[in-house]
Amino acid sequence: MKKLLILLFFLCISAVCFSQETTLKEYSYTQFFKMVEAEKDSIFKLENAIIQFDATTDSLFRITEVRDSLGYIELHPVRKDSIHITKALNLNNVHFLPRSNKNLVGLPLMVFHKEVRLNNPYIITIANSIFKERFIYRVDKDLIDLNSTDYLETDYDQTTFQNCTFLKGVDARRVSELEDNQLLPIQVAFLKCLFFPLENQYALHSSFNFPSIITVVIAKCEFKGKGRVSITYGGKTKIMYIGENSFIEPVVELTESESLSDVDYYEIIENTFVNPLLVDFQSSGKLTFEWSQLKNGVFSASSYQIFVSESSFSEGFENYFSSFIDPAIVTKYRDEFRIENTKAYREESKLYGQFYKKYKEEQDIESANKVYIDLKDLQTARFKYQYQESPSFKTFFTWKINQFLKVFSAYGTEPARAIIFSMYVIIAFALVYLFFPNHWDSHGKNRIMDRYRFFLKYVNRDSGIHEVYLEEQKQDLLNAEDFKAYLLEQGKTAPKFFMATAMPLYKWSVAGTNTFSWFLEKIDFLKGKWSDTEPSKQSGKSVLLITAFLIALCYDILIKMLNALMLSINTFTTLGFGEIPIKGLPRYLAIIQGFIGWFMLTIFSVSLISQLLN
Questions:
Q1: What is the mean pLDDT of residues 51-75?
Q2: Residue 315 above 60 pLDDT?
Q3: Residue 513: exposed, middle, or buried by beta-carbon count in 10 A (0-12, 13-18, 19+)?
């Protein structure tokens, strides 16, 4: 009896040991789908199998590869009609080898009407297919080591979903930590796929959790409808690319499961995130991330989750997930909670600080400035809240100075903006000075009246226009003639040096007047009084006369405007060198302008120095 018990014991041990060895059954693609069709249950289950291409029966599962104009590989099914699968699929450790004799094969043009669950699929290619119910993809620690077999004679060791439509969400993740010596899928890729959310109380759109996969690619996909998209990466992942995707309605959560180590290539670029992106980084320095793909900035994922947990109870939501994607909750967190709650404010500031430091280290000054502006906007909102809670001059000034800095220099990141606003101030004050006399304009408000007087004198005299002009310049000419007479009288008894240098000075002083007088004489068209002009010639001379008057008037207005502009620039930059060359109300406005100019030029200088140091 004792020997019998010992024998039974060893038989049990051997049976247990044998049970640890898993044999992979082999089927062709056609055999596999015949098995699915023959299944009488609503769920088809299969474990530990290899689906291999059989050239004699599986020609309809062939896929051709075509490169587009940008070099991307497009998968095109050979057959034209879709295969409809009306049973739910639950496949565990079933591998659809994608190549045989250089033929690319897979599951093209499939329509899955029920839930599809793939557990530990090492390699599979699905193209141009539709998943009408939820799609579940799992990688577990019980993955069979295919390296111990002769099946991996392929250069296409990846799981690929291209041009697929997922109508009820995707849940793709690892279940447990994999051992270092366990086989991992080389690549998991979702390319040009269309995702819709799972319509149930969990409001889950899609979940991608692949920290133990070597390569993860989600590219050129579109996520439709409201829901939560969760993307987790890190750990053993060496290459990750999330690019050119469209997240218009979903709330996207991007987190690291572990600190990144030995990373070869990590990029999140050229996506469109309309809602704020929920982010938690442990080592963002190893990640390439474009700030320009964000339309409404980022939230701290951990702080937002805490807020949603509190709100789901206090606001009466049915569950945590429905409140997670509610636009009112997103708005309330952005405009209230992260500003008023000290811990949330610190987490948000820390997150922005991580991005800012990252871009500075990469010498991406443009992105660093954008992050800095968003951070300062958050800070300004915090200052406003502090003023409302504790009104004082200090809190009011701190809040308003931040607002001022944003408008006039984008918090010191755009020196050019300070110059632009300075020009606005200069022009605004110049318009005021234009209607008031100042010391710089010798004619002042009489300039236009003098112009009317000049032309009326011209049309009512027999003398030509050049004579009227010389009469207007009589005082200046007399001064010059007096100077010449004095030279001729006194120069006879003085060294010749004085005559040699003074006479050119005299000629230069009258040259401009004489030249313009000569020009007016040549173009004089009236030649006599207007009243003596023949009626037949009055029309033509009227046109010439009015044209000449308007040209002179425009010149006078231009000079007056330039004087006002120069006065405004002088006041803005130097406050008139201590003197304010204007009277009346504008004199007090000039003092205000001088103070504004001092303040804005200081902002410009500091902003410029800051950018130069960057």
A1: 79
A2: no
A3: middle
Q: Per the domain annotation, does 58 fall within a domain?
A: yes
Q: How many CB atoms lie within 10 A of CB 18?
A: 8
pLDDT at 92 over 60: yes
Shared domain check, 452 and 310: no
| Mean pLDDT score across all residues of the chain | 79
pLDDT tens digits, one per residue of 399-452: 998 888 888 888 888 888 888 888 888 888 888 888 776 666 655 566 777 777
pLDDT for 281 beyond 60: yes
Pairing of strands 204-209, 170-174: parallel
Residue 348 lies in a domain: no
Tracing tokens 């055999």 back to the chain, one arrives at 31
- Domain termination residue (choose one: 252, 284, 316): 316
Kindly state the tokens that stand for 131. Answer: 């998943």
Beta strands in 25-96 (DSSP E): 25-28, 43-52, 62-67, 73-77, 83-85, 88-96
Domain count, the chain: 2
* Domain final residue pick, 256, 289, 316: 316
The closest of 108, 97, 93 to 51, measured between CA atoms, is 97
Please give the residue range of the domain that contains residue 537.
Answer: 444-598
**Phi/psi of residue 331, each to 5°?**
-65, -40
Residue with tokens 């509610």: 326
243, 266 contact by CB (below 8 A): no
Sequential DSSP letters for 243-310: ES-EESSSEEEEEESS---S-SEEEEES-EE-SPEEEE-S-GGG-EE-GGGBSS-EEEHHHHHHHHHH
Whole-structure pTM value: 0.71
How many other CB atoms sit within 10 Å of the CB of residue 120? 22
Q: Which of 281, 293, 336 is nearest to 311 (CA)?
A: 336
Nearest residue to 317 via CA among 227, 168, 202: 202
Would residue 210 count as lying in a domain?
yes
Domain membership of residue 202 (yes or no) is yes
List pLDDT tens digits, range 171-199.
887 665 555 544 455 678 899 999 998 76
Q: What is the CA radius of gyration of the chain?
A: 42
